[in-house]
Amino acid sequence: MTDPQPTDDRRAPDQLPRTDGGTATGADETTLDPWGSSTVADYRKLFEEFGIEEFDDVLPDVPSPHYLMRRGVIFGHRGYDRVARAMANDEEFAVLSGWMPTGDPHIGHKLVIDEIVWHQQQGGDAYALIADMEAHSARGLSWDEIARHSREYLLSLIALGFDPEEGEIYRQSDNRPLQDLAFELGAHVNFSEMQALYGFDGGTNVSHMQSVVTQMADILYPQIDEPKPTVIPVGPDQDPHVRLSRDLAASMRYFKVSEAYASFETDSEERALIGEAYDALSESTDDPVRCDEAADWLSPDMTLLSDYGTSTGENILEQAEDEVIESAVEKLRAAGKEPLRPRTRFLDRTATDDAFEALIEAIEGEKRVYEGHIDSFELSREDAESLAREVELDHGGYGFVAPSSIYHRFMTGLTGGKMSSSVPASHISLLDDPEEGYEKVKSATTGGRETAEKQRELGGRADECPVYELYNYLLAADDDEFAIRVYEECTNGERLCGGCKEQAAELMREFLEDHQEKREEAKEVLDGLDIDLGFGAETEAAN
């Protein structure tokens, strides 16, 4: 394949061509099911309904971003700013993702492989896993089938640039440290949580539930020896796994570090209100601010707001829910004359007695020790986080950093709707004969108009075109200018569908020819690795 040459184009994100790939015809709601047919009718709903953050917000902080990031194919994230900082500062970070080997790898899977390989090339510790336990428990595949498919995935992984000498490849069923970690994590998750996240019920088999805990161990596995920022590249349908893993990473920690103002515990909303009261009251007096005074300031009758109020204070009170204000006031009144004073809190979650005592000793400066927590009046939150992790690691804990994630759009199937492994015409397998790939592209649905005349007059609908997605996601490679040119020629009527599909089909044929040559070269590499894929894979290799 002749790759389009990369350019130095750095247009603003909204100037690069983007599509809403994967919008299912007729879909009117968002479902995120890791084992089903997830639909995303409007990607903006993922920000509103699930708290996924927009990737454009962190894009400026990513050194030399991948073209999938620049073009909005990677559209969302959770906590990726932590990984971007590590990358920019040449600090340790990791990337992990994998596949449930239920069929042949296709161009949709290439997105994940590209993201793993790119992070590895940026200096990250790279992990690629075969979710064979999940395939067996959730899909009922035999171990022989799983082994055969696993080999095909790994050949494409290596052919697309993964360096197995610098990274790690493993199967869930053959990784004892992973299984031990899964056992420990299982003590921190219950059926009701799985029911809420995944819709499990009385008919869900135990092995399927166990495979979920194993996937949580997968996500945290890069940190098993040393905590570090870790990114998990996935489609949005895998977000339930990411959310649960972040919760488990927190619940496994010995200590929770937060900000506080008094001896009692508050949630983040209550804490924000109490902080406003403290700031307003402390500006007007040199005397210690008392909890009951803050309660008066926050009271619904606003008794002291006329004396101490600020426009900021008024705004935050107007925006706060009544029950949040009432709860904060109730806690403040119960504390009475206790001084209100900012501090950093170490809350005991799962710490051993020895670890708790060691933390008390390690905190320098003014501090106050309570039964379940320690308050420091001199440590910043960042320094407190570092100290808590250091003590935890010294006393047998993991010190997990909350895993991050990035999300790419679903690719639209060549026949319209979602790309599906069970519909061969909807996708191009990385194992397809190059001529078959050529013909599939030539037969693909497009976003063109009914006639060439209308296309020239009105322009094509590149945003709704599976063929344009092939350019944007794959065929234009790192050349943004090429992808932009295809988009603009389509939408202004210069480019007609016949010629566009012919060019795309030829590029696809070249890609498959090149990829399959590299797969042949990868066989020797894979066979030289210490990975036992099972009887089925060995038989396939011998053939």
From TrEMBL:
InterPro entries: aa-tRNA-synth_Ic, Rossmann-like_a/b/a_fold, Trp-tRNA-ligase, Tryptophan-tRNA-ligase_arc
Disordered as annotated region, ranges: 1-34
Listed GO biological process terms: tryptophanyl-tRNA aminoacylation
Localization terms from the record: Cytoplasm
Iron found in the keyword field: no
Primary localization: cytoplasm
Membrane-crossing segments per the record: none
Composition-biased stretches (Low complexity): 19-29
Keyword line: Aminoacyl-tRNA synthetase, ATP-binding, Coiled coil, Cytoplasm, Ligase, Nucleotide-binding, Protein biosynthesis
Keyword set includes Zinc-finger: no
Superkingdom: Archaea
Function: Catalyzes the attachment of tryptophan to tRNA(Trp).
Name recorded for this polypeptide: Tryptophan--tRNA ligase
Gene symbol of the encoding locus: trpS
